[in-house]
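Case study 2.
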Amino acid sequence: MNDRAVALLEQYEVEVLRTRKGRGVILCDTDKGLLVFKEYEGNEAKLALIDRLLSQIREQGRVPAEELVPTREGALCVRENDGTAYILKTCADGRECNISDRGECQEAVRTLARLHQCMVLEPGDGCPAPARFSPLQEYEKHNRELVKVHRFLRKKSQKTGFEYSLLGCMDYFIEQAGEVTEGWRAYEERMPEGQEEYAYCHGDYQYHNILWSSQGMYIVNFEKCMRDRQIRDLYLLMRKLLEKTDWPAALGRELLTTYEKSASVSAYAYIDLYYRLAYPEKFWKIVNFYYNSGKAWIPQRNQEKLDKLLAQEQQKKNFLESVFQI
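Prediction:
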């Protein structure tokens, strides 16, 4: 973020005492506490929706979360001459949730359950509801991309060791992705109309966005919030934790039970969670990163990620069978 962008802070009713760089943001010590100034890539309609959600969360007082700070003119973002938008938000002085601490992970799940109860918006207030996110369409898109890369690798005459490794397991994961997608399609056809019609989810609920502060768990970075079944957030958090710990069934059951104690989980939500966890999302990410990066030099990290994924595949299958066998 350049100095011209920092100068935009003059449009806010705050006195900036000091600024320092954070992860992709500018941290601002101000007369109103710690604030975060960052680039915003969405549109203003989405920003209005985020503000409405955050206002409702704040009014209900069940979960400490960030707030958008308006300018003196009441705008939710400011722009540079080139059109780049920036937003100013409140923040807590804390650290990221420790995914190695089981107690903190449980508290993150309890906080999520309370957060979801605050994130149901009825249409109105001049803020039209966005289209509902479709996992089925996303999986179909991912599947087409996997087939495309498979075709590319088969035709490539000179392959690196990583590319041979990737090609060697693509048939397996393409078949797995197809089976999960067809299972999801059948699930969607059985899903009753109108379930969670006006529910929203955080969209990026993982430990980077869960701060442990003097207020308890403080939730940040709602820019990816969307209309999707709220089980999406639990899936995101669980997948990250389970990948880090080799898919232990005991941890999975523990997190599910913790969530259920504060929020109801329907039979459809269980099926939803199963298919989201079963889809080979991590493999698609590795493939997507490889295909959309320069191929003259392939980072060793790509091979390490693939090796870890393959080593965990049986553990993941055991987890799904154990936790979702009913």
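The longest strand covers residues 33-40.
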